[in-house]
Design brief:
Layout lengths: L11 E4 L21 E6 L2 E2 L2 E2 L2 E6 L4 H23 L5 H15 L2 E2 L5 E4 L35 E10 L4 E8 L4
Antiparallel strand pairs: 1-2, 2-5, 3-4, 6-8, 7-8, 8-9
Helix pairs in contact: 1-2
């Protein structure tokens, strides 16, 4: 458990068609199948710092599912590179880049956000704010803006690609601003 005793968000394990579901949804439980796709999304707290990561795994040999898994990992790397090569980028621009990465790889972008702010637990929350704390198409704030106290902000980048016709999705998220 690496000293983890609490999580700042619900722990998610989704398989099959549930991989299309958004974070806020609570689809019915599914049993992992013989030739399935599964993703995990965990938000542990280490000491007093939030973490957040998501990974997708394929059970079996389905080449399309393996392609999806590779594509989301490559998209995360491309999104991180984009962030570093464009220091003035806004959240809206980063979200648009994530959508373009999905389209180029032949997928649909699966979510209304492509990441969020993270920090000392509990992270800053503003009631009803579903824009400025997120990599959201309507957030035109620069990602490298300091917070209200002048500290560097840390962001999670989320990649969620889906194929609604085939009822599969893949999810990859991790810290964007370090490393």
């Amino acid at each position: 458990m690496y000293g983890i005793s609490r999580y700042w968000h619900k722990r998610i394990v989704r398989a099959g068609s549930n991989t299309l579901a958004l974070y806020d949804e609570n689809p019915p439980d599914l049993t992992v199948g013989e030739d399935d796709i599964v993703f995990l999304d965990f938000g542990p707290v280490f000491e007093e710092w939030e973490a957040d990561f998501g990974r997708t795994y394929v059970v079996g040999n389905d080449p399309l599912k393996h392609k999806l898994c590779r594509d989301i990992e490559e998209a995360f790397a491309s999104g991180k590179q984009y962030f570093y090569e464009h220091p003035e980028t806004t959240a809206a621009e980063l979200y648009a880049h994530a959508q373009q990465l999905a389209e180029r790889a032949g997928w649909e972008y699966g979510g209304p956000i492509a990441g969020h702010l993270i920090g000392v637990f509990p992270h800053e929350k503003i009631a009803g704010d579903k824009i400025t704390l997120y990599v959201h198409p309507k957030n035109h704030n620069r990602k490298r803006m300091p917070d209200a106290s002048g500290r560097k902000q840390h962001w999670i980048l989320e990649i969620h690609f889906v194929d609604r016709a085939r009822q599969i999705g893949g999810f990859h998220e991790e810290l964007l601003t370090i490393g």
